[in-house]
Design a protein that fits this description.
The chain has six helices and four strands. It has 176 residues and is α+β, with helices and mostly antiparallel strands. The protein has two domains: 2-75, Glutaredoxin (3-Layer(aba) Sandwich); 85-175. A four-stranded mixed β-sheet has the order 2-1-3-4, covered by helices on one side. It is globular.
Length: 176
């Protein structure tokens, strides 16, 4: 059975939980108290070298970290990751887009909003992102129209196997 190292507020861990459920794969959850330093323990760093969640431990003892790597691994051989090399590359393109364009701009700010972490946590961050952080919000939200257009064209073709909409919608919903 797969063991999922999880932190419930993490959208990256949520993506893995969602795919495990969609695929009907049984798994055991182990929660990592990242703010108590569990992610930096020697034991956990052997599973996730950067100490991040999610990570999975396979039944044979091998481990994988990084949500999009885990998604690619789990989806192999399913409708979520096409067998055709070009179509598979398009799915990976979306995963890279989410990791490089969506995640840094929206998810980081969501983290700040949830944890109130950052300079003067009880100060300017407590009321939400300050004016100086608005460009990051705008950058993240700017990707939404292009994603929506791409989703619309795939829906017209009835091609839902690599639908990014849930990831983007959840990031926006939890941040905004």
């Amino acid at each position: 059975m797969i063991t999922l190292f999880d932190y419930l507020p993490s959208q990256n861990a949520w993506k893995v939980r969602l795919l495990l459920t969609q695929l009907g794969l049984p798994y055991e959850q182990k929660f990592v108290r990242i703010f108590d330093g569990e992610g930096q323990s020697d034991e956990y760093l052997r599973i996730s070298p950067r100490g991040t969640v999610p990570a999975i431990l396979l039944s044979d003892g091998r481990a994988l970290a990084e949500s999009n790597v885990i998604l690619s691994y789990l989806a192999e051989g399913s409708a979520f990751l096409p067998g055709d090399p070009y179509d598979k590359a398009k799915v990976l393109q979306w995963l890279m887009f989410e990791a490089t364009d969506v995640q840094p701009s929206i998810a980081f700010l969501r983290f700040v909003k949830l944890t109130r972490a950052g300079p003067g946590a009880a100060g300017i961050w407590a009321a939400g992102p300050s004016v100086q952080h608005r460009p990051f919000v705008n950058q993240g939200l700017a990707v939404v129209p292009s994603v929506a257009r791409a989703q619309g064209s795939r829906r017209a073709r009835n091609d839902h196997a690599h639908d990014l909409t849930p990831t983007v919608n959840v990031l926006i919903m939890f941040f905004c």
